[in-house]
């Protein structure tokens, strides 16, 4: 008997006719094979039809014939609005769905007719939106808006997967699901619902089911983090198999290959190279005083981490180029002529400058090794210096991405959200009873305090993240008369400029509230830092970066990184005090006035254009007023008066 196999995937219909033996083997590829009789008489050579829904990669089947599927006209959110108006929903429900669609379109700067009404297109529009960008206050309101948009898609016959689990589980799945912890239920609920709805048995779950689940998320989910959801699901399933009694012992994997890291760990490199790397790093941390060729001071911890990565990265480049492990025995090998030929050609900067910064850091490290550690010939050091001079770009101007963000932050409404961020967040946290506060609430309070401190004194994140409670935070007085200062020595500032700042009274009160109510929740033991990590040390700059960016995106509507506060506050100051670059230089601890001028010269340009426009508009208004006085009450003459009309008027 011949069997016709039909699969559908990504807008394509795949068909194949097999004999009975091959069809039996092919049908085992699908866990949810459905055999349906043909709806109409078929040719004699085709006696049955097997429908296989969406194999992970149907193109791998031999002899597959692909033909385009019949597509409907693309529906947009304007179509959804019309369908909602004509639906049987209650008037209140109609109003809410239309509000959600119009709000989404307005936030993206488009009209409903420009946005396709399908999950992938809406996922792209929703990705990156925050409550503040939509004019909302809470994440719950954003989730409600997404749910209303999802209901609009359901009305036009394009349903999207719900955010929460709404499917009634079958008995086998219900029994297993009840054994999970609350966190495990949150991670596995969507996948368990998918398997139960498709009548998959728990003991049969395999990698193919994960691939179909990922495919459904890709095509029907509004969550832009669907690949992460799949990874979380796989990890939670395998953890349940190891810890939950009675859970199926099938181990599953994600349907895509894990990306292999190009840069190996230091422990994976040859042992002599590891020993040489450790000796070199010790030298970089504490250069010997008796060595006249040694650097003047040791490297900071962040620079050491960067150097460790580059030593691993350059070793990987040489190994990929064919070097054997026996040839790579020391850090000195990196500055040999044959090694430099490989390292300097690998990912050299493009003509437009792409990759210049990363390449320049690599060359600077090679020059440092050649000059201070390996005692390489002067020809090599001079050659590396010429490369550095060629690609160095001594420009202190603002990065284009930061300049674009400053335009978004120029509106009074956005700035009002930023300047009222600390009161809003702390008022919301104050309503939570002290016994119900969690570490995440304390992390929110920490990020909010950092934002308010950056507004009042926009220091570098590497400086503010390491504020010591006794060395850097100096107190004077008590109660309402208490004063608080930030004091940093030359060694604690990037460019060696000492800083002394007095905090305003409202920030002093905020610091005290944070120290007494929220900071203890972040610690397992004692700590001497204002922004502590779990182990008691200072919180890393990366952690603060992500916390501040996430906070401002949610409550302000723009992702403001810690360094952008320096540009924003300087811009606001220069808008009110044009040309006062000396105050900006002192506040930001710049070493030269030229650096501040190059970074914020655009502010003066915009002020000059505004002054120019004001003069032109004033001249325009004067000209219009003068023309109105000349016309008098009769209004403008539509045509010149002829000589005959003048005679009649004189008569």
Your description of this structure?
- The chain has 25 helices and eight strands.
- By secondary structure, the chain is mainly alpha-helical.
- It folds into five domains: 3-68, no CATH class; 77-155; 171-243; 268-391, no CATH class; 410-559, hpI Integrase, Chain A, CATH 1.10.443.
- The protein has a five-stranded mixed beta sheet with strand order 3-4-1-2-5. The protein has a three-stranded antiparallel beta sheet with strand order 6-7-8, with no helix packed on it.
- Helix 3 crosses helix 5 and helix 18 (439-456) runs antiparallel to helix 20 (505-518).
- The radius of gyration is 34 Å and the shape is globular.
CATH architecture of the largest domain: Orthogonal Bundle
CATH topology of the largest domain: hpI Integrase, Chain A
Strand order of the largest sheet: 3-4-1-2-5
Radius of gyration from the CA trace? 34 Å
Structurally, how many domains make up the residues?
A: 5
Helical content stands at 40-55%
Which runs of at least 5 residues are low in confidence (pLDDT < 50)? Answer: 1-71
Number of strands: 8
Indicate the CATH class of the largest domain.
Mainly Alpha
Which range does the strand content fall in?
5-15%
Name the average pLDDT.
82
Task: Please state the overall shape, judged from the principal axes of the Cα atoms.
Answer: globular
Defining traits:
single chain, 651 residues, mainly alpha, 5 domains, 25 helices, 8 strands
